[in-house]
Amino acid sequence: MGSADDGNSSYGQKAFKRSKSHFADRVTADGRDGWPVEAGRYRLVVSRACPWASRAVISRRLLGLEDALSMAIADPIQDDRSWRFTLDPDDRDPVLGIRYLSEAYDKRESDYPGGVSVPALVDVPSGKLVTNDYQQLTLDLATEWTALHRDGAPDLYPRALRDEIDTVMAEVYEDVNNGVYRAGFATGQEEYEEACAGVFRRLDLLTSRLARQRYLVGDTLTEADIRLFTTLVRFDAVYHGHFKCNRWKLTENEVLWAYVRDLYQTPGFGDTVDFDHIKRHYYQVHTGINPTGIVPLGPDLAGWLTPHHREELGGRPFGDGTPPGPPPPQEQVPAQGRP
Predict the structure, then answer these.
(1) Mind telling me the catalytic residues?
(2) H-type alpha helices, the chain
(3) What is the pLDDT of residues 289-333, one digit of tens each?
């Protein structure tokens, strides 16, 4: 998720097209791109508002990489200079020493296409951006960073299920993860209706799938569940109203509402979600489609912690592994962002 090339007011004023990640280097166990996995070397820059960045936040928690990979949390209200570190003392990231994420991009390359997006992995010694490839980043955390995983870390991308996981993730990306944006930033009625119909067509198919199994693929949590969760957890708060994906609310779909509550109540998922950041970002940054910048009071968040009964379908959330411990104090979500 990045700043619009012409600033925040351009959202909704021109046809929406998601930029491909321009910086696609990979941090790998063998260091083949020049970036070897190394504890303490890299910093993960995220926004709790952004669903693409939230994938990386959840993966890092589930895999227990907090000590090996430090994390910077950007202000949910970006400006036209990009994501900024105004949540930190002196408005600077304490590790990288920068005020804007764009500074790390500029150290890597000037006049880059695609804007400044999160998640971003930055090399601490040089201050240079390594990658903003949100699709590959979490897969690499699961498969290339294994030497630094915690004891009991789950296998989020099991080799035997990768073909099915990849298929499900591709469908979810096209119609749901990215579909809500195509609906929300549509500039014409036909474009909007096509995207919105696609969102709910896919949600109906996912409802049928999840009515008979606890998780998307296999009987444990995988990368596929993380990617669907980050959109569903934002659905009623922003996509239903702000992006006009309003055929029904998630709370009106018995299966998906139970599924997302199950994940939310699983350590590593809900404890990374900040509804305050989510709502303020979408409603205040996208001035092209919400020019008043008014942030709605609802929805009521009390239901997130109610029983879901999904355990009746079986499944073992962490497989042969264990849940992660509580997040470090400095990474806990403030009270105003939680139900």
Answers:
(1) 50, 181
(2) 51-63, 102-108, 134-143, 162-172, 179-184, 189-210, 223-232, 254-264, 275-285
(3) 999 999 999 999 999 999 999 999 999 999 999 999 999 999 999
